[in-house]
Amino acid sequence: MIVCSCNVLSDRDVQDTLGHRNDRPSVAAVFRHMGCEAKCGRCVRSIVAIVDQHAARGMDECAGNGDCDGCRADGLAA
Ligand code: FES
User: Fold this and answer.
1) Segment 43-75, tens digit of pLDDT
2) Angle formed by the axes of helices 44-60 and 69-77, to 10°?
C-alpha cells in the first residue's frame, strides 16, 4: 500500500528501510534513509505508525541482553 504519494513510497518500503534497527528513528530519518524528504506531510502519521509497530515488534523479540531500546529504558529507570 502506498503511504507517501509525493515520494511514491509503500508501507513495505518503509518497513524495509527500518530493517533490523532497534531504535525508533524520526520520520525525517526514515525519509533520509530512503533518499527523499517529506513534501506535503500527509503521510507522517502513517509512517510514525509503521515505525511504532516496528519498534514494538522489536521489543517483543528482545533477548534481554541490553541491546534494545526497551533494555536501555529499563536501565535508565533503575
Ligand atoms: S504524502 Fe508523503 S510527503 Fe506528501
Assistant:
1) 999 999 999 998 888 666 656 666 665 565 555
2) 80
